[in-house]
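Submission checklist for the structure archive. All mandatory fields must be present; incomplete records are returned to the submitter.

[x] Identifier: Polyprenol monophosphomannose synthase
[x] Organism: Glycomyces terrestris
[x] Residue count: 263
[x] Sequence attached
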Amino acid sequence: MSRSPDRNVPGSDVGPAIVAIPTYNERDNIETTVAAALDGCPDIDVLIVDDNSPDGTGDIADRLADAHPRVHVLHRSEKQGLGAAYLAAFAWAGERGYRVVVEMDADGSHDPADLPRLLDAIADGAELSLGSRYIPGGSVRNWALHRLALSRCAGIYTRAMLGLQVQDVTAGYRAYRLDALQKLQLDTVNSVGYCFQIDLTWRAVKAGFDIREVPIVFTERRAGASKMNGAITVEALWNVTRWGFAHRARQLRRVFSRGRIEG
């Protein structure tokens, strides 16, 4: 049974925080990741969101929850994508009184040592803090050159199409104030894969969020297979392109509208 949280983000009064970790076939990573998160920030809880992993990740998650009162598990009936998993986590956390939710990968790519700095940015007033690979102090380790090139090119294309100043628009290590998330019309989000991160970043910018980028070191997964595939890439490319054209069309309409008024 889940308990009500009673710990605050360190050094602040923004309320209790929870780290959401989506899993699908992460039995080789989940124990190490959860232990590192708990050790890295003793004042947070952890929520494992498992999509009925056939490799038994959900059973391991249950054992972790039985052993640690700060660990919780949300079982989902089938694999529905990263976006749906995080939306379920946001709802779960909000219903239980959490004020801050952190997104973290299960595969060890995100260093829990960076977690306090993400939370410090929230405590300092940010509504969204992003663990950024592409600002001074941030970096990527052990990625093949083609993956790094794809990530950088995707970021450049997304920033150009949407007019964003955020340097790491696909960052998956991030913290939100839950009260701010409610402004993003989450019931209309249908992004499935990693495009979910772009989608929420874009929504946060349009909503006027205070967004802070925090440098992190991103490391290639410890074990298991990446969930990135062609369908996920196509989804992101298609959505960014159509959002970008719609954004530019709105800008042009505003320009023409001002011109008619002034004329």
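[x] Structure attached
Curator remark: The first strand starts at residue 17 and ends at 23. Strands lie at 17-23, 44-50, 71-75, 100-103, 128-132, 139-141, 174-177, 211-215, 217-219.
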